[in-house]
Amino acid sequence: MSAALASFVVGTLALLTVVLMQRDLPTFEALKGVTWWQWSGGLLGAVFIATAAFAGPRIGALLFMALVLAGQLSMALMLDHFGWAGYREAPISMGKLAGLALIIGGVWLIRRG
User: Fold this and answer.
1) Is the Cα torsion angle 44, 72, 59, 97 positive or negative in sign?
2) Which helix (H) or strand (E) holds 60?
């Protein structure tokens, strides 16, 4: 958990520095317009960092990152297919499914290894 805290403190300071340099602070009205799923990004980021700090050393960096990649690409496939979160709709194709299947096969091979 210390690693997660350090990561978020450094990230917060870096983002604060960028915002102050731009002198373009968001207004309260702009913050009120942010959707629930945009607010959830910070919480999910914290969960990811905590998970990485806990699981990474136990399962190894390679398997952990392969699982992260497979998960992110699976979600990206859904975002594109349904046009969620403002992405343009791009239907799932056999090529995309085959590429994702190869990545999942890679996860399986890494786990076996």
Assistant:
1) positive
2) none
Contact 19, 13 (CB under 8 A): no
Contacts of residues 84-90 at CB distance under 8 Å and 24 or more positions apart, as own/partner, are: 85/37
**22: which 2 tokens?**
């731009």
Q: What is the pLDDT of residues 37-77, one digit of tens each?
A: 888 988 898 889 889 989 999 999 999 999 999 999 999 99
60: left (phi over 0), alpha (psi -120 to 50) or beta: left
- Global pTM reads 0.75
Describe the crossing of helices 61-82 and 36-59 by its angle, rounded to 10 degrees. 150
- Count of beta carbons in the 10 Å neighbourhood of residue 66: 20
